[in-house]
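[DERIVE STRUCTURE TOKENS]
===
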Amino acid sequence: MRQILFEWNFMGEDAEGTAKHHVIHLKEFIAREKIESSRQEYKKVDDMLSSAMMVIDEETARKIKDVLRPHKAYVIE
């Protein structure tokens, strides 16, 4: 099954801290909803932009995308 990468972008001086904190909430959501996810992480793009990301299977992504409202989603083949 294909994997989907959900991404949330955060901008500004606190972007890195916000992205790190968002990953904590993603992990809590995954545990609470008993969802299998291959990874959750953050990425610092530069001093003013960071992203929180999670990879999830396509079927589950369809079910929860409206709840999590990612800024971007990519298919991982």
Notes: The chain is about 40% helix and 45% strand. The radius of gyration is 12 Å. The first strand starts at residue 3 and ends at 11.
